Amino acid sequence: MMQRRTDEQTALTAEYALYLVDIRGVEFALNYLDTCNVSRSILTRALESPDSRRHHERRKQPRND
Question: Helix axis angle, 2-23 relative to 26-35, nearest 10°?
Answer without folding.
Answer: 160
